Amino acid sequence: MIDFIYNHKIYGGIAALAAMLFFSCTNELEKIRFDETEDIPVAITKDVILLYSDSARLVSRLQAPLRNDFIGKNPRSEFPKGIFISFFDKNQKPHTQLRADLGVIWQQSGTLNLYGHVELKNQNGSILKTEELTWDNKLKKIYTHRPIEILDEGRMLTGQGLVANENFEEYIILIPTGTFSIKE
């Protein structure tokens, strides 16, 4: 009989505690709702290596010491401590390399904005240097309106602004500057 009373008190106490916990919970979604106007990262990743593939074929490899992901009105991934990307051809050989002090990938538009010391090198050895560059994944173009320098086949080309294909094999300098030699 004492065992029955003792066990009854223990089970009754557990049941009372469970009931208190169950009824004390409230659903206050307004307090925990995410404020989309706040511009704070929802994920922070260190020492990032991202591999992008298409149909089991490596397309690009992105490396960065830090990645901050944002959601809300302007979803994006920021790489505030630098970014390095290698793009690969159909034979899995790197054809273009891109480096910058800061990178931002915008999820909605699919564009990549690069800032700081931006350097792009293609498979032919041509090197583009600028302060700001945009790579538009949908248009398969890169462009800038900032001053540019291109080291191409031993000659230095300078200008203001550039539009190029994504491999940086064909490009147009919007406002060429500097000294040019012209064959007659």
Short précis:
The chain is mainly β.
Describe, in plain words, how this protein is organized in 3D.
- This protein is mainly beta.
- The chain has 2 domains: 2-31; 38-177, Lipopolysaccharide (LPS) transport protein A like domain (lipopolysaccharide transport protein A fold, Sandwich).
- It has 2 helices and 11 strands.
- The protein has helices at residues 2-24, 29-32; strands at 43-54, 57-70, 76-79, 83-88, 94-100, 102-106, 111-122, 127-136, 141-152, 155-165, 171-177.
- It has a 6-stranded antiparallel barrel with strand order 2-3-6-7-5-4.
- Strand 1 (43-54) and strand 2 form a beta hairpin.
- The longest helix is centred in the first third of the chain and has 23 residues, at 2-24.
- It is globular, with a radius of gyration of 28 Å.
- The termini are far apart.
- Mean pLDDT is 84; it is low at 1-11.
Topology:
Layout: H1 2-24, H2 29-32, E1 43-54, E2 57-70, E3 76-79, E4 83-88, E5 94-100, E6 102-106, E7 111-122, E8 127-136, E9 141-152, E10 155-165, E11 171-177
Entry keywords:
184 residues, globular, six-stranded antiparallel beta barrel, 54% strand, lipopolysaccharide transport protein A fold, mainly beta, disordered N terminus, 2 domains, single chain
Q: Count every helix, treating DSSP H or I runs of 4 or more residues as helices.
A: 2
Beta-strand share of residues: over 45%
Along the chain, the helix and strand elements come as: HHEEEEEEEEEEE
Structural class: mainly beta
What's the average pLDDT? 84
Oligomeric state, counting identical vs distinct chains: single chain
